[in-house]
Amino acid sequence: DAGITQSPRHKVTETGTPVTLRCHQTENHRYMYWYRQDPGHGLRLIHYSYGVKDTDKGEVSDGYSVSRSKTEDFLLTLESATSSQTSVYFCAISGGQGRSTEAFFGQGTRLTVV
Amino acid sequence: ILNVEQSPQSLHVQEGDSTNFTCSFPSSNFYALHWYRWETAKSPEALFVMTLNGDEKKKGRISATLNTKEGYSYLYIKGSQPEDSATYLCAFVRNFGNEKLTFGTGTRLTIIP
Predict the structure, then answer these.
(1) pLDDT 10s digits, A13-61
(2) B103 in reach of chain A (CB within 8 A)
(3) pLDDT of B18-58, one tens digit each?
(4) Could you give the 3-state DSSP secondary structure of residue B16?
(5) For residue B36, which residues of chain A lie inside 8 Å, CB to CB?
(6) Minimum distance, in Å, between the CA of residue A10 and any CA atom of chain B
(7) In this complex, do B43 and A108 lie within 8 Å of one another by their Cβ atoms?
(8) How does strand B10-14 pair with strand A19-25?
(9) CB pairs under 8 A between A and B
């Protein structure tokens, strides 16, 4: 199994509070992604990173920020959590060294905003 | 926003029958098309990464084809088994060196024993 872990695995938080989810990899892969899974929408890209300190927005980035200060960690922050951000969040990594390569996914973080 | 569409949204197939479904994507600036299998309560797992027009990939009873000029890919499952029940996702990558994966909404396949 690819070395990718998400933490926490489950979180309940209150509306208006900041929340940070962590994705950690041991594969030294260049690309890291944060997706959210919602019924009827599949996986929607929130942000992705193509290197340390290099990030780009996805299709549903409003209300989220990310940071990647080292290769192995990609943090997703909900600046002020809202109920619409209740979802399952998946982190993914891929190598992409000169060619497109498969992505490996973490186990997901179930976030509930009450 | 890139438009990656999958059809049908869901499918029920009798065990032993063969089936196929479609992923449509923009044909301009194509770089790669991925297929993933996603079982309930698990994480998606890669099936194929395809980059060349006319490419065909096969893994056991599952195969995929790619037409980059018209912007579609087919996934085929031969002799469906109950363990094939899952959601099948395609993901599109536009532009070399970008590797920004945009997923379709998936086809949910249920095999009826």
Answers:
(1) 999 999 999 999 999 999 999 999 998 888 999 999 999 999 999 999 9
(2) yes
(3) 999 999 999 888 899 999 999 998 999 999 999 999 999 99
(4) coil
(5) 103
(6) 14
(7) yes
(8) unpaired
(9) 59
